[in-house]
Write a structure and sequence with these properties.
alpha/beta, 12 helices, globular, ten-stranded mixed sheet, about 325 residues, 10 strands
């Protein structure tokens, strides 16, 4: 066991992978700093020097039919979340142009609801066509559970990356949501990959899951090998069933980032919602040991980080 962490690191750097069981053993290793240092080496070896932020816009908000316990936009709960239909192309383009001037290269329309269908899908596709005409942004979408026909329409409109979070481990998902399944999400992701989309899929940590279940989520993600893995930290929202959930501590967040870097060495690990509460020191360390991208700006129903602030932190961590 003396060289356990180093041996796993070398295997990953040489193109191999660690097993689920080895990841569990790594998580229980008493020297976290050794794990963090190894994860930093993996990040430097596989990662690009450029920090890769993306921005999002809430393209349809509220009154969601799904009962995800963490979400302020669920129609099952009483929160102060905004409610509106599909935004206009002008609004989407204006936000994208602003973000583009700030140096952001990716732009994602995000909608509440089980799926975007019919007239709503047509409006979303029209927005992408206008975004493609008026900006140089790489276009992404987080639009719920989609079938191949829906995805072809989105591809033809200019969208190139599909976001669909698995959210949590298969063994815990039914505790958090009963109106759809993790396999419904996997079906959407696999259909998108078949068409040619890049994939963005991760989850939320700190919802009461165990450390083993956080590793289980990372293992499940290997079935689709996302290009980008968002790591959200639960921001308990009044009115949702998780409103009183104790906050996950900084050390556990950093350990999760490091373990995900071991298990997904080539993926973008993307800091997303909930990170604003972390100390500067914790956020900086996370960037060094695995995080090499982020969702920037306002993050739907929680307060995000300012784009300039994220860029400054990335520079401090050694990115350009």
């Amino acid at each position: 066991m003396e060289n356990f962490v180093s041996d796993l690191k070398d295997r990953v750097i040489n193109g191999g992978e660690i097993s689920f069981e080895e990841a569990l053993m790594l998580a229980e290793h008493e020297n976290h700093e050794e794990i963090f240092a190894a994860a930093e080496e993996i990040t430097r070896f596989f990662g690009k020097p450029e920090f890769n932020p993306c921005s999002i816009i809430n393209a349809r908000a509220g009154k969601c039919s799904e009962n995800c316990k963490w979400c302020a936009q669920s129609g099952h709960y009483h929160t102060d979340s905004d409610v509106h239909g599909i935004i206009s192309a002008d609004k989407a383009v204006a936000q994208a142009k602003y973000d583009e001037k700030k140096g952001v290269k990716r732009f994602c329309q995000v909608t509440s609801g089980r799926a975007v269908k019919g007239e709503a899908l047509k409006k979303i596709c029209d927005n992408y066509r206008q975004l493609r005409k008026e900006t140089g942004m790489f276009l992404c979408g987080s639009l719920g559970l989609l079938d191949e026909e829906d995805l072809v329409q989105l591809w033809d409109s200019g969208m190139r990356r599909l976001h669909c979070n698995l959210e949590t481990a298969p063994s815990y998902f039914n505790e958090m949501c009963t109106t759809h399944t993790i396999e419904d999400k996997m079906k959407t992701l696999k259909a998108a990959r078949k068409i040619g989309f890049q994939l963005c899929s991760g989850g939320i940590i700190g919802m009461g899951e165990t450390r083993k279940q956080r590793i289980e989520l990372a293992e499940k993600l290997r079935e689709v090998m996302p290009d980008s893995i968002p790591i959200n930290i639960l921001h308990p929202i009044k009115g949702t069933p998780l409103a009183d959930t104790p906050l996950i501590d900084d050390e556990e967040i950093l350990l999760t980032v490091a373990l995900y870097r071991f298990m997904h060495p080539k993926a973008e690990l993307r800091f997303a919602g909930g990170r604003a509460r972390l100390s500067h020191e914790t956020r900086l360390k996370a960037l060094k040991i695995g995080i090499n991208s982020a969702v920037v700006g306002d993050l739907l129903t929680t307060v995000g980080s300012a784009i300039d602030e994220d860029k400054a932190l990335a520079l401090e961590a050694g990115y350009c």
